[in-house]
Amino acid sequence: MKIVVAGGTGFLGEPLVKRLVNRGEDVTVLTRNPAKVAIGRGLQWDGRTQGAWATDVANADVIINLAGESIADGRWTEARKNRLIDSRLDATHVLVEALRDAPKRERTFINASAVGIYGDRSDETLDEKSPSGSGFLADLVDRWEAAAREAEPFARLVLIRFGVVLAPDGGALKKLLLPFKLGAGGPIGSGRQWMSWIDREDALRFVEWAIDHRNARGAYNATAPEALRNRDFARVLGRALHRPAVFPTPAFALRLAFGEMADEALLASQRALPRRAMDEGFGFERSTLAESLARQLG
Questions:
Q1: Nearest-CA neighbor of 66 among 152, 162, 197?
Q2: Angle at 126 between CA 124 and CA 132, to 5 degrees
Q3: Rounded alpha-carbon distances, angstroms, from residue 243 to 167, 199, 268
Q4: Average pLDDT, integer, range 70-97
């Protein structure tokens, strides 16, 4: 298959490209810096305007859109909010425009999304039928999915709502490892908020499943079956590292450091379950946090 990956040099994209190439796929990576592409074929794009790359997208069997600036890498100033919005919506719009150039071709369009679409929902159990929540992050993800749905006349559309993706070389887990190894880790805020997470290997398998299962359409929660309260997540991580997990980070300190982002990305509660994927046959290999950390941290 010819597969095009936008955002294929990041924390999730790079190992995904490697996995797809290793299974024999012809993979093109859309990137601002093709020299960074070590596996697959790098192709220049700016994520905002049409270019020579559009022909590859129009002729691809599968297009995977992971493009977007990281949500949790700093305080949400107004300028940064605009970058978070533009980096997702602009990339999605130009990819859909490229699909319109060959509207009758059979293809699959997989667009990353996030469980942030549900907002802060306390103890409510959430599945793919649950309505969107409120707040900047929920609105951003809702708009991102709406932009991707413009591809439905031209492709089989799959929206993958990722939880917190865990791997020790990046993302949330990498940031947590140092304080926990130093014995200074613990719950965030009250620790009562639910965390919906997924091991990166299962996240990559989820994308493969979306490619291979032709009946898969619409939105799916890509989260482990075991959601945990933050305090329990901290306890399991501390146990895996043989370190205490009793030093909480106060909510007021997080709000001072990160402002609005603290409430929506760090303190918000989302108990999102992967109901559709499990009903349709996807099997998790790392369904509990203890198992995931044991495999990742040895």
A1: 162
A2: 100
A3: 19, 21, 26
A4: 95
Quickly count: other Cβ atoms within 10 Å of residue 226's Cβ: 18
Q: Which two tokens stand for residue 42?
A: 């790098």
Condensed to tens digits (0 to 9), the pLDDT of residues 129-152 reads 999 999 999 999 999 999 999 999
Residue 279 in domain: no
Q: The tokens 């093709």 sit on which residue? A: 34
Query: CA-to-CA distance for 61 and 2, rounded, in angstroms?
Result: 5
pTM of whole model > 0.70?
yes
Number of domains in the chain: 1
The pLDDT-based confidence of 199 (bands split at 50, 70, 90) is very high
Classify residue 177 as exposed, middle or buried by CB count within 10 Å of its CB (0-12, 13-18, 19+). middle
Residue 144 domain boundaries:
2-165+198-223
pLDDT tens-digit map of 241-284: 999 999 999 999 999 989 999 999 999 999 999 999 999 999 99
Contact 17, 39 (CB under 8 A): yes
* CATH code: domain of residue 96: 3.40.50.720
Cα–Cα distance for residue pair 31/47, rounded to 1 Å: 8
Sign of the CA dihedral with 188 first, then 191, 194, and 200 last: positive
Query: Residue written as tokens 């933050």?
Result: 230
- Interatomic CA distance for residues 42 and 2, integer angstroms: 14
What's the CA gap between 130 and 260, in Å, rounded? Answer: 24
State whether residue 176 is helix, strand or coil.
helix
C-alpha distances in Å from residue 249, one per residue of 171, 253, 256, 289: 18, 7, 12, 21
Evaluate whether residue 23 is within a structural domain: yes
Whether 281 maps to a domain, the answer reads: no
pLDDT averaged over the chain? 96
